[in-house]
Amino acid sequence: MKKIIAFAAGALLASATGIALAQAQHSEQDAKTLAKDVCSACHGPEGHSISPVFPRLAGQQRGYIIVQLDAFRNKTRGDPNAQAYMWGMASQLSDAMIKALATYYVGQAVGLMNAEQSARSVVYDFMRDYADAVERLSGTLAE
């Protein structure tokens, strides 16, 4: 009887471990898909953002990404960009997905901006500053 109980307990443990490993692998693949299909729109391909509004995630520390995504999800990080962009996005993430995204971005090469990315960043900054100047000037002329 003891052998049957031990065998059953072992089989149950092995089954649970297999299920947990399958879910972990599934989450990693889901994280990669989410990063490429959603996150890359703002944070760039593989986490290489060229926008000053959206930070680079490639090579970032795992713990930092987890803490930030958790803060976005719980709405405890309240800066305007967090509210505008990340609160809604992160509200849909599970703990497992947050950890899997963090693991994905840790594994991405940090790299340097290539010339095209650097040029786009300069143009973006110029156009933003130009639009701000035109808006200020328009307000001054209207008065």
CATH topology of the largest domain: Cytochrome Bc1 Complex, Chain D, domain 2
Number of helices: 5
Helix content: over 70%
The total beta strand count reads 0
Tell me about the largest β-sheet: none
Low-confidence stretches: 1-24
Q: Find the CATH superfamily of the largest domain.
A: Cytochrome c-like domain
How many domains? The number is 2
Radius of gyration in whole Å, from Cα? 22 Å
CATH architecture of the largest domain: Orthogonal Bundle
Strand content: under 5%
Brief overview, please?
With 143 residues, this protein is mainly α. The chain is 73% helix and 0% strand.
Structure commentary:
There is one protein chain. This protein has 143 residues and is an all-alpha fold. The chain has helices at residues 2-43, 62-73, 80-90, 95-106, 115-142. Residues 1-24 have low confidence and may be disordered. It folds into 2 domains: 2-111, Cytochrome Bc1 Complex, Chain D, domain 2 (Orthogonal Bundle), CATH 1.10.760; 114-143. Helix content is 73%, strand content 0%. Helix 2 crosses helix 3. The termini are far apart. It contains 5 helices and no strands.
Main traits of this protein?
mainly alpha, 2 domains, 5 helices, 143 residues, Cytochrome Bc1 Complex, Chain D, domain 2, globular
Q: What is this structure's SSE topology?
A:
Layout (H helix, E strand, L loop, with lengths): L1 H42 L18 H12 L6 H11 L4 H12 L8 H28 L1
Helix pairs in contact: 1-4, 2-3, 2-4
